[in-house]
């Protein structure tokens, strides 16, 4: 369900968003924000996967006494 939300992004990002829409790359401010949020979501998923695959096993080994 779509919902309106008000955010403050500052001059730098305001100009960036406006330029993306003006260039025709995106149809609206909402399209730009959604694209950015999708990228952030993908990034966070990769960070979680890296943590689960690399960091967490090492933490378990250390807590079990490995490396002492």
UniProtKB/TrEMBL annotation:
Question: Which of UniProt's keywords are assigned here?
Answer: Toxin-antitoxin system
**CDD domains, per database record:** RHH_NikR_HicB-like
Entries under InterPro entries matching the protein:
ParD, ParD_sf, Ribbon_hlx_hlx
Q: Where are the transmembrane segments?
A: none
Which top-rank group of organisms is this from?
A: Bacteria
| The keyword ATP-binding appears for this protein | no
Q: Name one GO biological process term.
A: regulation of DNA-templated transcription
Gene3D superfamilies on file? Antitoxin ParD1-like
Tell whether Chaperone is among the UniProt keywords.
no
Record's family? Belongs to the ParD antitoxin family.
Task: Name the PANTHER family on file.
Answer: ANTITOXIN PARD
Task: Quote the NCBIfam families the UniProt record gives.
Answer: antidote_CC2985
Instruction: Tell me what this protein is called.
Output: Type II toxin-antitoxin system ParD family antitoxin
Please give the organism.
Sphingobium limneticum
Q: What is the phylogenetic placement of the source species in the record?
A: Bacteria, Pseudomonadati, Pseudomonadota, Alphaproteobacteria, Sphingomonadales
């Amino acid at each position: 369900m779509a919902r309106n939300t008000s955010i403050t992004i500052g001059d730098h990002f305001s100009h960036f968003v406006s330029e993306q829409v003006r260039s025709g790359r995106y149809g609206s401010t909402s399209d730009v924000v959604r694209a950015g949020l999708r990228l952030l979501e993908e990034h966070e998923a990769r960070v979680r996967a890296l943590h689960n695959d690399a960091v967490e096993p090492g933490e378990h080994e250390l807590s079990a006494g490995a490396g002492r």
